[in-house]
Specification:
Shape: elongated
Structural class: mainly beta
Strand content: 35-45%
Distance between the termini: 77 Å
Radius of gyration: 19 Å
Strand order of the largest sheet: 1-2-7-6-5
Helix content: 10-25%
Number of strands: 9
Amino acid sequence: MSLYFAGDPEIRQFENQIGRVFDNFFSDLNTAKRGGSIRSSSRGGSSQTTWSPAIDLHETEKEYVVNAEIPGVPKENVNVDVRDNVLHISGESKQDQKYKEGNTHVQERRYGSYSRAISLPSNVKSEDITAKFEHGVLEVKIPKAENAGKKKITVQ
């Protein structure tokens, strides 16, 4: 059995490469990123981690419902908005500071900025979208517009 540490740059690079393969493969699902993916970058000597929350997208006759897992993040650090017919979920998960001293041997929880973008169909009422955050799960309800995109044209 082999163990690796979360900070190992070769493992992180391999995870990013595999993540890109899956992102490209599933790109036709109208989601900007695969759920649970982690991206790391280093700029100017500082390391930055970005992750994407896992989502479920459900459709009923009257609405679309997005559930995003964002555990351990307070409601104040969850942002939801719609721009150019894309639902954006973003925010930041801050690392627990109670273990400043000593060595961390395993770190599986995610910290840093997170974001997820989901393309919306044209038949939604953007102004009536609601969001609720409970027990680490964000629920976004996106009502459908009635007869959106349909118009009876009289032939003359």
